[in-house]
Amino acid sequence: MRLCLLFFFIIPFLQLSAQHRVSGRVINSENGTPLAYATVNTSEGTQILTNIDGSFKLDFSESPVEVNISYVGFKPKEFSLTKGTEYILIRLDPSTESLDAVRITDTQDKAEEIIKEAISLKKKNNPEKALKGYSYKNYTKFIIDNARQPIKVKTDSSGTAIETIVNTGRAYLSEKTARIDYNKKQGRKETVTGIKTAGFEEPVYEVLALDVNPFSLYEENYKLFKTEYAAPLAKNALKNYSYRILDTTRTERPAYMIYFKPKREKVVAGLEGILYLDTESYAIQKAKAQLLGAIRLEVDHHYQYFPKEKLWFPVYQTTTIKPGSGGKDISVFGGVISLGTVQRKNNILNRIFTKSGLRPDLYLTSTSSNYEISLNKTERFKRASSETEVLAEAKKQDRDFWQRNRQEEFTSRDEATKIYVDSIIKAENIERQIEVKKSMATGHYPIGFWDFDLSKVFKFNNYEGIRLGAGGKTNNRLSEHFSLGGYAVYGLKDEQLKYNLNTAIYLNKAKETSLKLGYTDDIQEVGSFEYLTGVNDFALLEPRFVNISFFYHFREAYAGFTHLLTSKLKTEFQLGRSEISQLSSYRFNLNGRTYSDYNITEARLSFLWRPFSKFLRTPEANIMTEKAFPKFTGQVNQGIGNVFGGDFSYTKLGLKIEHEIKRLDQSRTEFIAEGNYAFGDIPLTHLFHAYPNNPNREEILRRFSVAGRNSFETMYFNEFFNDKLAMFHIRHQLRPFRIAPGFNPELVFISRYAIGSIDNKERHQNLRFKSLRHGFAESGIELNKIFAGLGLSAAYRYGAYHLPTFKENFSFKFTFQLQL
């Protein structure tokens, strides 16, 4: 039945033969180079521009039709086309007069003058700068139609649905309606009033975070599909782009047609295209941007003039991706899994690939229409903590709603695609594939109602030796209101079983409000401090864990409560009682009494604040759509004596600030500052170390292991403990060295510093250690991604804790960054 319907909807396309289409290309007759954005006019009144590679497609009904092709610096050419023509190659001859050196320089200088003027007037022309506020409604249609084309997509953990749809389903269709409100004081808010996704019971919300249709070309960086490009009207645009005047339009409000092309393509990601700049206001009337290589990416922006406000406002945009003709790889979707964690990256490292020579059939298209536009609004709106909010009724809108709000026709081709998508989603079991990939990105594999925890299967450390086990938690198949979980592991060296049992009761999933209960019998590293809140990263490899030998044993019963105060602020409270026993000769002496075993009753309050990240609030979840810095993690631990048998009273404070500066040339600088402070009667097990990662062995090669990202590589295990500690890390990565396809190593310079102290050191018996009162310093270098994610690092220790010999101060290790 579905095939019959599909046939029924496809038939009309075969009958649309009233118009004839001819493909062509415009090149320089002297050297064969393509002429991008040459103007093609016909006697029927059609005007189009050639693409970056000089190609074009022209539709006409009359036969013959007169065609005129012109390009600045070249002699125009006129000719006739008939319906018998399928393809035409046009060679334009350079004009001697136009190619005069002075004339070219004047043209370039004039273009640069126009661009400088447009940049200086951005505040006047950019709607978000010029207006007090605005509102409008938006309709977006997003289609992936890749049934015939073997294009391969890779994404990060936040894009597994898109990757699965494209690579397996090869087809996708969604529609969205929204209301956008903006004012200078409150910023921008998008309220999604309608959303539907063909073939899926629940909408694929990830599409809303793809930046498929960026609002403005006035920003410093132009973001498209999570990739940032240098904007053609940025402050430093003349450094990144060259410009040329192609023509001026003959409309009611004429515009300069300015061609722009990247100057430093290997250094800064840029686009090639054309800006239509108003000859009076220098505002953008229209724009076209392209990338051409393994794929063809095209973006068209259309603006409407509002006389009262004397402003051009964006009203329509199309974005398309098609198979290219080969050449350079184009970064579009993607991400990278780095050492130890799943990293959500804004700079895209994975690519869409395709074979050369494929027919240019449509692969992806997104159209976005703005309507019911109201400018200079001053009314305040209800501000949510998330930038985008999906209303509960959005996925339940009926047919009448969509007919009222569609700003373009839902064509028979769209209906055919919808039928095709429905069948593909079911036949390929796409929803199951998405479920598996999302779970694996967080370290789980779902089987039925149980998500197996992959991190519990195998580990190794110096105390337990090989640590084998299994664990996981129940998923929504058992219940949407609670989960049951736990793990059981066994150390082959210490021959001890460790385990955990836990449950979470979900009170409000959208606000991540839940009640947690659990019991753990396991070991913990002495001096470690763990924050309750933070991104739940799946550790592919934990470099430090392998070399740890100083543990204590604990049995803890705990109860906790988590809640999102806002989309950007997550909190968790936990109360636990632990029974501690030593696995070494360490003893704690307090007021003449020596403790090897003791009880700890501890209340913990933790927060994770990401003020600059962007979030999408749906009825079911709070989804981070853009990770931004700085972010802040903090925690207070209060030891409570004489409550539930607690032996000690103390206070521990921790605050970590993480910041990252990313540049368009793909270099970046990362900063981490962390401070820990403890006072009261507190044993060494609950104090602080500085994350040492140097095994306690003499020879350099015997210490050869895997370097961490935030650990001190020349600091030996158990060398320093503190009750007051401050650490600072800085990593500066140069832009990748593009040596060969697939071989782009990254050079990183690293500097780390830690300072601390400890009071009442004499309380801690049977253990030799120092504090960091004089300050510990090390610097290093990494060469990452030499082969299959593997690299090398070296670091050197200097300053107050410099040791007598070179080999004692030097570390040489692997780095590991797995890129998928």
From TrEMBL:
Signal peptide feature range: 1-18
One Pfam family matching this protein: CarbopepD_reg_2
Keywords linked to the UniProt accession: Signal
InterPro entries noted in UniProt: CarboxyPept-like_regulatory, DUF5686
Name of the protein in question: DUF5686 family protein
Organism of this sequence: Salegentibacter chungangensis
Upper classification of the organism: Bacteria, Pseudomonadati, Bacteroidota, Flavobacteriia, Flavobacteriales
